[in-house]
Amino acid sequence: MTTHSDALVFFGATGDLAYKKIFPALQAMVKRGHLNVPVVGVAKAGWNLDQLRARAHDSLEKHGGVDPTAFEKLIGLLRYVDGDYQDAATFTALRKALEDAHRPAHYLAIPPILFETVVGHLAESNCGRGARVIVEKPFGHDLASAQELNKVLLGAFDEGDVFRIDHYLGKRAVNNVLAFRFANTFVEAFWNRTYIESVQITMAEDFGVQGRGGFYDQTGTIRDVVQNHLFQVLSNLTMEPPVGFDSESVRDEKVKVLKAIPPIEEKNLVRGQFRGYRDENGVAKDSQTETFATLKLEINSWRWKGVPFYIRAGKSLPTTSTEIVSKFRKPPTLIPDSLLVENHLRLRLSPEVTIAMGMMALAPGEGLSLQTGEMVASHSPRADEMDAYERVLGAAMAGDSSLFAREDYVEEAWRIVEPVLKKNTPIYQYSPNTWGPDEVERVTPPGGWQNPIVGHEAPSVAGQAA
Ligand code: BG6
Fold it and tell me: Which residues pair with 327 in a beta bridge?
């Protein structure tokens, strides 16, 4: 059934995620005319509806601004149920607040440890009848816990009614990778092992853990952004063309490409930690958690066999940007290798969206001297562009699964990273505002890492041959 949800319930209404992401997304949905059903916040805070409304106002003042008209409408839709998630009475009250809604969407913006309790009560209280359930990452902390969570959810809901949020799938720039590949005929001709020598993906953030030390120290970079966000980027980049653009055809191809990736080997991972991290609140003084990781993986498919894929992500790096660089093989040519510089395709996903083709041409002057110049198509997100959370919440309420991770996908992603996560590999310190520890050299693409630059200029490797 793809009927639109007729109510939205969000558990964890007084929490951090609601404050930073959910209220701004709800206001934006109202403003666009996409939300016109009751919105029920649930929490155990001893609050009343007026306090929740005040919290929503405060949240919007800090995150994106209050739009007076949309905000008035939003607080008109808002309801509040205060109660303990362990207590059946909370769910009786919720059912009452839902009135005659028969297709509610329950958004579990709460720690995964509470999922089982809440899902159990939803099922018993009739709040779960005809409902959808939306869950937040992290989806488990390893394969076994992800399987356990799947069991809990699928014990009460059909897979088609379960929406596992990975907000990267709500980013237009991430979906644009598919548009670039499948809307442009010429791309398919070179998008394979014959032409591409290596691929590197960098997700750099120039800030630390921003007060989330307690969460982060239990998580680390690989669980926080690699296993989910960057694997979604990787899947979009490498999957085969789906037979259709319906959600299952797309998700089938994503699972297929992950299945072709062997588990990451210890020798292909370097973990780092920025100096000062251990002084953060909630972080252990002897923490071995990574705030930076670089890893290499292979895709043993017909298209990609033999092409190394490098992923690098970290906090406290010199800039904030997510960028993909695919380097092309050298041509068979009379031009000596030493004169060839670089031929690449650069896809920048943030802060602005860029498609750049780095091509060699004769440098100005005399003699056979080459330089790489980029042909760039770029745009900055529009001010009124949908935020990722707005997009995924709207999609879940509409019953569109394509922007969500399927059960088998999540489990495949854990299969790839889990063995190396359990190995306690060494952790190397790095200074904030650098590109990670020196040991990164061990896991570096041929020709080196290409660091994302700020703005629209050409990348640092482009230059003139000697
Ligand atoms: C979150 C991580 O899922 O994604 C954060 O928990 C990270 O640590 C964030 O900073 C990055 O998201 P975005 O949308 O800012 O790129």
Answer: 198, 344
> How far, CA to CA in Å, does 10 sit from each of 61, 321, 396?
20, 31, 13
Q: Which residues contact 306 (CB under 8 A, 6 or more apart)?
A: 193, 298
Q: Could you tell me the pTM of the whole model? A: 0.94
- What's the rounded Cα separation, in Å, for the pair 435 and 247? 37
Nearest CA-CA partner of 288 in 263, 271, 311, 312 = 271
The mean pLDDT values, 10 residues at a time, for the chain of 466 residues are 89 95 97 97 96 97 96 98 97 96 96 90 93 91 94 94 96 95 96 98 97 93 97 98 94 98 98 98 97 98 98 97 97 88 96 95 91 92 89 96 95 96 96 98 95 62 35
At 169, give phi and psi (nearest 5°).
-70, -15
Q: Read off the DSSP letter of residue 464.
A: B
Nearest CA to ligand 1 atom 7: 225
**In one letter, which amino acid is 164?**
R
- Which of 121, 167, 229, 344 is catalytic? The answer is 229
Structural contact between residues 22 and 35, judged by C-beta atoms closer than 8 angstroms: no
3-state secondary structure of 403: helix
Q: Is 82 in the pocket of ligand 1 (CB under 6 A)?
A: no
The strand pairing partners of 322, in sequence order, are 203, 350
Residue 356's beta-bridge partner residues?
A: 346, 376
- Nearest to 289, CA basis, from 301, 279, 303, 278: 278
